[in-house]
Amino acid sequence: MATLYIKNMVCNRCIAAVNSLMIDLGYVNFQMGMGWVTLKEEELQPVQKQALMESLEPLGFELIDDRKSRIITAIKNLIIQRIQHENLDQQRFNWSEIIAEALHYEYKYLSTLFSSVEGVTIEHYIILQKVEKAKDLIVDDEMSLSEIADRLGYSTVAHLSNQFKKITGMPPGKFRELGLERGKPLDLVE
Q: What does pTM read for this prediction?
């Protein structure tokens, strides 16, 4: 079996797009998840790999070949998955423990690697993702700021507001009042 790691494959629509692409390219025996595809074949031939890379690129995806990039992508995917699809108020947890356990590395190593390559800490990346999700929830206008703070795992609305203002330059209430647009696509949050 060959496992391929794919950059920017960060949501269910991404998985559907890559799934469709794999079928179009003639692959039938594969499994996939957020950021990866496992083929039943032993290894891809160079020609097959090149064809796959060329097909992924127009969709905004790319194959990841080196170990460090795969680790960073796995960290990002884990964070995005949790923030986008889980109700964080139900799960008061320690991000460093979750990330270290999921990737089977010491958190200090993961944190240092992430910061050196991405230029921001994992903690800052988590805040950026939470703020982007908050923007979407504010634009949807179906939840109060208190409900949004709870949904994203903030202990208070003030904590959410402070982080939101640091990132966007305005408090969430002003953002809602101005009717600004949704957050950035997940793969563009830096």
A: 0.73
